[in-house]
Amino acid sequence: MTEVPNVAGAIETLESHLHPQPSFDLADHPSPNGREEVWRFTPMRRIAPLLEERANEDREGDPAVAFTLNAPDGVEASTLNRGQAPRGTVLVPGDRPAALADLGCEDALYVRIPANTEVAEPIRLEIEGRDAGRRSNAVHVIVAEPNSKATIVYRHSGSTQQLENIEIDVRDGANLTFVSLQDWADDTLHAAEHTARVGRDATYRHVNVSFGGDVVRMHTNVYYDGPGGSAELFGLYFADAGQHIEHRLFVDHNAPHTKSNIDYRGALQGQDAHAVWIGDVVIRKVAEGIETYESNKNLVLSEGARADSVPNLEIETGEIAGAGHSSTTGRFDDEHLFYLTSRGIDPVEAKRLVVMGFFVDIIRRIGIPDVEERLVAEVERELAASVGAAK
């Protein structure tokens, strides 16, 4: 049973095995044992340090994670104490890691884009882990006031144990793009919950890219605060040997004439590389005239890799404009390789071209040139391991 705000701001109960009841009280989130539906794909022993109650483990002059914010003129940045609005008005923790993140974070980062403001340059936050053995608990609150427009880019790097809650309020008529790059070192543990409330006639784009880390488990949630809102959720991931990358998405169409589009693509290579994608879209009785589609595609590049992909649609009204989902997982297409090599292209280069083509359709939608260039370079680096080994 999950409770989320409906259009009027009241609490409406949602019955779903995929969404435990949210709560700020840690007692409502006992440690999972791995048999729960929402935890059955997660490597419990490896993620166990993120399920323990621990404060931020900073040392004098040496934080567990260093945060560097670059905010252009016109953007307001400050902090919020626990219980200080607007902190906690959009995101209520849906699992134990999210509750621990809030409990362990005294001061949340607060970023506000004023009404009727268009920020030309991206707002950037560098998040650098300093120690794989230390915990960082982070809460970030982002508010895009009515009719504002901005792009925010988070880049995670280094080594740490990171719990992260990001609540995003996209108010009426606002246009916000949020990009989260998980470029961690191979020993990092990361659990995050990103929840957005999309206002009347607002536009929200969430881009999630996971290439690094030992275990990365991310929840991306969206609900609406009025009709006409639109949400696009794009994602890329590349799992290497022994790496576990898990993305869980939930879109709650709790207002009429809203839209959502989900498109996630991943590649896997190496022994025990594991990717998990769970997509769930709920269309409530009130949500007439909505449009939604969710898609997940996985490309398996080597033996020993595994992808789990589970799309879900929960529909409570037949008065909708359109709804659908798709999921595909397949090995590298030998026919494509044969086609290219038969035209004189080297087999290694041919494989690189096919995989880059698989990713580039998502990359080109981001719209931030330096981020797109970084992602192309990262895919090239990942491919060097598998393609180079095939020489």
TrEMBL record:
SUPFAM superfamilies: Stabilizer of iron transporter SufD
Domain SUF system FeS cluster assembly SufBD core: start-end pairs: 134-358
Entry superkingdom: Bacteria
GO biological process, one term: iron-sulfur cluster assembly
InterPro entries: Fe-S_cluster_assembly_SufBD (IPR055346), SUF_FeS_clus_asmbl_SufBD_core (IPR000825), SUF_FeS_clus_asmbl_SufBD_sf (IPR037284), SUF_FeS_clus_asmbl_SufD (IPR011542)
Family indicated by similarity: Belongs to the iron-sulfur cluster assembly SufBD family.
Protein name: Fe-S cluster assembly protein SufD
Taxonomic path: Bacteria, Bacillati, Actinomycetota, Actinomycetes, Propionibacteriales
